[in-house]
Amino acid sequence: MAPVLTSPLVSTQWLADHLGADELVVLDASVHAAGTGRGMTWQSARDTYERHGHVPGARFADLVQDFSTPDADVPFTRPCAERFEQAARALGITNTSTVVVYDDSVGEWSARLWWIFRSFGFDDVAVLDGGFVKWRDEGRPVRVGALTSAPAVHVEAAAFLAGEERPLWADRARVERAVDGSEPAALVLAVDETVLGATHPDVVPGTTPIPLRRVVDQDSNALLRPAALADVFAPVLDSEQIVTYCGVGSAACVDALALTVLGHDRVQVYDGSLADWWRREPIAS
Q: Which helix (H) or strand (E) holds 44?
């Protein structure tokens, strides 16, 4: 029987207690970035996963290729249902699996994959709070090298199906309606503008900046506790709808995760984020 999740987050102790449980699938979703702003590039961290270690039994989930649409106009465009199903099946995930996702950074990539799973109706998924950094710093076991065999694919895996896609994503048109007031929403920028480069086009008008450094505890690498998170998100928490965004829609998922932890259930992530917004002339604010 698969472990039962009671929160969008699981602790390192929870994972240690359940590691090896039937139908528990642990995914390393790490991505490594270089550069800033429009010059930023990304690559799969599979090599680091193999050479420098991962949670024992964790399978590598490739966000650059498998869980995105690589030929799209902007990086990390979310996959279609068929591509998502194919990527999940290849990792041995079934419709009865419990999935825990982590990365080796501040959680933006694990939160991105968590949001993708939820957007396709898969709720038995959680993010490892503090990720691999917290796991490793606590002296917990680390496995070096690739998995010795591919995940076993059972009949159920071959029949793995995505659910109906939920309205968890915003596009440019939705963001424009928030800007012009025709469909109000609080707009939250989840990245420091310094990360966007020394010079960059304007961010979305009317934005409230709530960058990752204010959401993640710098000592533990875990999300702040709910009371502290509520203080950080106080400027937007009473908004009926919230749209989070960043450079490409990764850090935005950490803010979306934090808002979900706080119980806000009308949050969308702007897929493509500023990589999409900057492709066209900005609308008047």
A: strand 41-44
Q: How far apart are CA 136 and CA 53, in angstroms?
A: 9
CB 64 within 8 A of CB 79: no
Is residue 244 within 8 A of residue 252, CB to CB? The reply is yes
Residue type, 266: R
**Each residue of 127-168: pLDDT tens digit?**
999 999 999 999 999 999 987 555 554 444 457 899 999 999
Cα separation, 197 vs 82, in Å, equals 35
Quick check: 58 and 26 in contact, CB under 8 A?
yes
Report the chain's terminal Cα–Cα distance, integer Å.
Answer: 53
Q: What domains can be seen in the chain, in order of their start residue?
A: 9-158 (3.40.250.10), 169-277 (3.40.250.10)
Q: Pairing between strand 41-44 and 31-34?
A: antiparallel
Question: What burial class does residue 249 get, using C-beta atoms within 10 Å of its C-beta: 0-12 exposed, 13-18 middle, 19+ buried?
Answer: buried
3-state secondary structure of 46: helix
Phi, psi (deg, nearest 5) at residue 84: -60, -45
Non-local (6+) Cβ contacts of 40 within 8 A are: 33, 34, 247
**β-pair partners for 26:** 100
Residue 179 neighbours by CB under 8 Å, 6+ apart: 187, 204, 205, 206, 283, 285
pTM exceeding 0.90: yes
